[in-house]
Amino acid sequence: MEENKEKKKSKVFRIVLRISIVLIALVIMLFVIKIAPNYTKDEFSDRTNLIINNNNITRNLKSEIIIEDGVIYLSTDDVKNFFDEYLLVEKENKRVITTSNTKTVVIPLSGKSIYVSGKNVEIAHEIIEREEKIYMPMTDLIGIYNIDIKYSENTDVVTIDSLNRKCVTAKATKNTEIKYKATIFSKNVDKVQAGDTLILIQDKEGKNVIVEDYIQVRTSNGKIGYIKRNKIEEETIVRTAEELKTNIDGKVSLVWDYYSQYVTAPNRTGEIEGINVVSPSFYEISSSGDLHSNIGIEGQRYINWAHANGYKVWPMVSNSELGDLDAMSKILSKFETRAYLIENIVKELVNAKVDGVNIDFENMYKADKDNYSRFLIELAPRLKENGLTLSVDVTAPDGSETWSLCFDRNVIGNVADYIIFMAYDQNGVSSTKAGTVAGADWGELNIKKFLGQEGVKSEKIILGIPFYTRLWKETDGTLTSSVVNMRSVQIPEGVEAVWDENTKQNYIEYEKDGTTYKMWIEDEESIKAKLDLINEYNLAGAGFWSKDRETNTIWSVVAEKLGI
Asked: What residue spans of 224-295 are helical by DSSP H?
């Protein structure tokens, strides 16, 4: 009897033990799954942490942060990674060239006198070199990059905030802990006292990051974590997001108003339906980097007329009169000559009280591609500083060295407000066979190249559309052609136009006096097809070359298609 009781007790004990073991295992599993992740090891505790705009990017640092005598230094590699992807170290000239949103700056490797957007400025500390790396004194460059920078010795954290971003703060209502994650089971990353100021972290839409009863914050020590929402008060917007707006609301509809430098600006009156930007040919560059201006009294009247009708004015700066690839190469080859031209451009635009510029540099050496990009990289901040729009003309990819391969479309698309694809002269004066000037199929093919291989954002691309075509003449095996403006196209009596579904153009071909004539016509239907590409690929808009070549009825088509 006693033996049976003992067996029963032993069996119950084993069952209870097994249940206990299972429960303990479940608790351990729960801890591992739910709680342990909240206690992950701080992998950056052995070095100075860097927080930029409330994101810990320490893992992405290429070099250690240097802090000497209260000055915070970042390597040029890290400045390039986080602030200026186009930063240039010219070791041969012993200087660093850097740009921000509104500044173009040259900093010598030795000395405290720096060049900032056309002026010499003194800073308190020099660039330093450590282990063959160059370090920039970020504490002295806060005005260049428009940032606020702080160092917390308590936690060994550097925080950098962009001053053009929204900033919201709040006060802690009581002494409390800041949690690693939004749960009571999470480890503590910092402690705050009642009355301490906290920065509320914002998401991409500028809203507070809230997880159930918690809100994400950053402490004065640079630590990022979560606090209960009922433990903060006095939420205050310290700074709103700032954006230097230089682009057009809606689609761009630009018309180039070309006239040679030997005549005066056209006398425009009334409105032009369907446009919002005009680009008169005001400027030509010289071999010295000076600008030949063709504004005068007539040009100022032109600007007044455009503004009175609500049009933006982006004058064209051209190198067409230079006629010398070597002269262009010399201007682009070094910072000093680029800066001289940039100063002249900015001065002229500001004095003329226009709204932007259209840079139309063509016929350059392929070897000057990067130097041309540098010119635009250094020009763009100067224009933004003055609220001016930068548009840049380029040709189709994959052409000749001096016509097509001289452009880095990816860089241009990044730094300019707009990149204008001159989608014409598919077949030009030097073509060995008759063909269209601007087929819709060819235009679409190259739009895809811009978006794909060139990596240009669709909202940056303006599609250039011609208001002209060519009349091709074939006589005894000899091919010639002449430009025919859209408004001057005439179809001879008895000749029937045939729609070409590929080019989206009406095509004519006929014989006369032993000569074969061919023409791919630009008319309302062909222009509609090109405008449809803008909407299909969500491009920025259209540019039309050039005013007074068009038919009067085309502007209502443009207005309808672009929603102007």
From this structure: none
- Return the CATH superfamily for domain 252-467+522-562: Glycosidases (3.20.20.80)
Q: Please give the distance of CA 536 from its chain centroid, rounded to a whole number.
A: 22
Residue-wise pLDDT for 50-107, tens only, equals 999 999 999 999 999 999 999 999 999 999 999 999 999 999 999 999 999 999 999 9
* Low-confidence stretches of the chain (pLDDT beneath 70): 1-43
β-pairing, 316-318 with 312-313?
Answer: unpaired
CATH topology of domain 165-239: SH3 type barrels. (2.30.30)
The C-alpha atoms of residue 252 and residue 247 are separated, in whole angstroms, by 9
Instruction: Choose which CATH entry (3.40.50.10140, 3.30.1330.10, 3.40.50.300, 3.30.457.10) describes domain 49-148.
Output: 3.30.457.10
**Residue 150: Cβ-neighbour burial (10 angstroms; 0-12, 13-18, 19+):** middle
pLDDT (0 to 100) of residue 262 = 81
| Helices 524-536 and 440-451: angle between axes, nearest 10 degrees | 20
Residue pLDDT, tens place only, 104-153: 999 999 999 999 999 999 999 999 999 999 999 999 999 999 999 999 99
Are the folds of 165-239 and 252-467+522-562 the same? no
Q: What is the DSSP string of 428-459?
A: -TT-SS---SS-HHHHHHHHHHHHTTT---GG
d(CA 408, CA 18): 71
pLDDT recorded at residue 245: 85
The residue type of 112 is: K
- Residue 256 has a pLDDT of 98
Rounded distance between C-alpha atoms, residue 72 and residue 307, angstroms: 47
Domain range summary for the chain, segments of one domain joined by +: 49-148, 165-239, 252-467+522-562
